[in-house]
Amino acid sequence: MKHDVLEPRFVKVVPRDLEPGVLYVSMEYGTVVHSCCCGCGFEVVTPLTPTDWRLTFDGESVSLWPSVGSWNLPCQSHYVIENNRVREALQWSTARIEAERTRDGQVKAKFYARQAAIEAIDAPVIAPVPPCPEVRPTGLLAKVRRWIF
């Protein structure tokens, strides 16, 4: 790894040009972005969602879990970011990468199906209100209204 330590930088918007060795964290957009730690210069984006990555910040350092596998990049680097430190991880085979992509897709489908079901249960049910029957005054009041109007 060319970069074995990353400096966390909390930003609203990630800059167009990334500084090597900087881990840009946008809580506003739930995204962590950095230049690949192997030094290839490619941008690595890790979305923070319940089914993707989790970021922990202890007031000084950040950790990102699970590991970062740059499987779509030519370098295919694989590393863990823990307490601002980059630890190189074992290279994965093509079969293992495909198995993980399949598992990841299944986890996402299950999570978002469950979320949709919860939202459907929590959605307010608005029953149509039947129209009020027209009430016509009777007796003396009715006679007075007819006389006036």
Question: Could you provide a short overview of the structure?
Answer:
It holds the Pfam family BubE. This protein is an alpha+beta fold and 149 residues long.
Explain the overall architecture:
InterPro entries: DUF6527. β7 (78-82) and β8 (85-88) form a beta hairpin. The chain has a four-stranded mixed beta sheet with strand order 1-2-3-4, with no helix packed on it. A four-stranded antiparallel beta sheet has the order 5-6-7-8, with no helix packed on it. It has a domain at 1-91. With 149 residues, it is of the alpha+beta class. It is built from two helices and eight strands. The protein has helices at residues 94-122, 139-148, and strands at residues 7-10, 22-26, 31-35, 43-47, 54-57, 62-69, 78-82, 85-88. The N and C termini lie far apart (91 Å). The relative contact order is 0.12.
Question: Helix and strand layout, with pairings?
Answer:
Elements (H helix, E strand, L loop, with lengths): L6 E4 L11 E5 L4 E5 L7 E5 L6 E4 L4 E8 L8 E5 L2 E4 L5 H29 L16 H10 L1
Parallel strand pairs: 1-2
Antiparallel strand pairs: 2-3, 3-4, 5-6, 6-7, 7-8
